[in-house]
Specification:
Pyruvate Kinase, Chain: A, domain 1; eight-stranded mixed β-sheet; elongated; five-stranded mixed β-sheet; about 325 residues; binds adenosine-5'-triphosphate; DAC_DacZ; 13 strands; alpha/beta; ATP-binding
């Protein structure tokens, strides 16, 4: 077996340090989000030497294949232009869905946070803080309502809206996925529909341009209605479903109640982003089944001009 120290020079010193420290950090897995250029066999050697599972979430399908060929444990996360925090969340969801991680586990993530060519950043993440109430069984149950690929794309955009907002402003939204025909019947337009008139293929939220449009439109009142295949059927809709028989955690307002309510009377899943907290919640059959807390944004180094007294913070 190759020692961790021996493989250090071939892969990344920071990753070797992470692997060496897992016991002290109390982590149950190492999650690697490798940059484009990677020494896959070196990474495999490190994975073999690691005392806990080393999970790899490559950024593109080509790299998924390279990592698999090297015999690594691969998490397939849809290629996305999202920030690293979203990629980490999606990778963790995938790991839980594959039963590779337990919902409350602690994980050390190593990624290219600052420089896109190297593994330069490391974060310890407690899943309980960010992904509450979620098991592999929950995910399989969700799939009976909406295909996972669609759901992951919705979660991806929701997590991004919750973390980033828009142009410095906090933004919340409601996205109802699946059983679109019945959801449409139980809702009405608040203003003109920004997606009206576009062809179906130009309204699919797996398309990054459509995801950008969703982030923009999320600032308006009302929610999105999305069909199982990811087509945005309508936006700016007021959801109208009865609250009877629902019980939600304290502090959640009408957006969350409307999201929970619509899933009780239709075969849909509601993804709700809270404007005030950025937390994303999933509802099915009137109940909350997943809560994703936003990860703090990595702070980039900033140069200040010492001659200037002006501060733009
Ligand atoms: N039935 C509904 N359908 C669609 N959107 C709704 C509905 N009810 C409320 N909203 C949207 O939610 C916004 C915020 O409402 P409210 O503050 O009561 O919700 P909340 O659940 O507390 O969410 P947040 O945490 O984002 O504030 C409203 O301005 C509106 O745009």
């Amino acid at each position: 077996m190759i020692s961790i120290a021996a493989s250090r020079s071939q892969v990344s010193p920071l990753l070797s340090i992470a692997v060496e420290s897992v016991n002290r950090l109390g982590c149950e897995a190492v999650l690697v989000l490798p940059p484009a250029m990677m020494d896959w066999s070196g990474l495999r050697a490190l994975a073999d030497a690691a005392p806990i599972p080393l999970l790899v979430a490559p950024a593109s399908l080509r790299h998924v294949e390279a990592a698999r060929n090297a015999g690594l444990m691969v998490l397939e996360v849809e290629p996305t232009e999202s920030a690293i925090q979203e990629r980490i969340i999606l990778a963790l969801l995938e790991a839980i869905s594959l039963d590779l991680l337990k919902a409350g586990a602690q994980v050390v993530a190593v990624y290219d946070g600052f420089d896109s060519d190297s593994l330069d950043s490391m974060t310890v993440i407690r899943l309980g803080e960010h992904l509450e109430r979620f098991t592999a069984r929950d995910l399989r149950a969700l799939e009976t309502t909406v295909p996972l690929e669609t759901l992951k794309a919705v979660i991806d955009v929701a997590v991004e809206i919750g973390r980033e907002g828009r142009e410095g402003k906090e933004v919340g939204t409601l996205i109802v996925v699946g059983d679109a025909r019945n959801v449409l019947k139980r809702s009405r337009s608040l203003v003109f529909d920004p997606f009206k008139g576009y062809r179906r293929k130009d309204r699919n939220l797996r398309d990054p341009k459509v995801r950008e449009a969703i982030k923009e439109i999320a600032q308006l009142d009302g929610g999105f209605i999305v069909s199982r295949d990811g087509t945005v059927e309508s936006a700016c809709r007021l959801i109208d479903a009865p609250f009877t028989g629902l019980s939600l955690p304290k502090g959640l307002g009408t957006r969350h109640w409307a999201g929970a309510a619509i899933t009780k009377v239709t075969h849909s899943i509601a993804v709700v982003v809270s404007q005030s907290t950025g937390v994303v919640r999933l509802f099915k059959q009137g109940e909350m089944i997943l809560r994703i807390a936003p990860m703090p944004r990595a702070r980039a180094l900033r140069w200040n001009n010492p001659d200037s007294s002006h501060s733009d913070d």
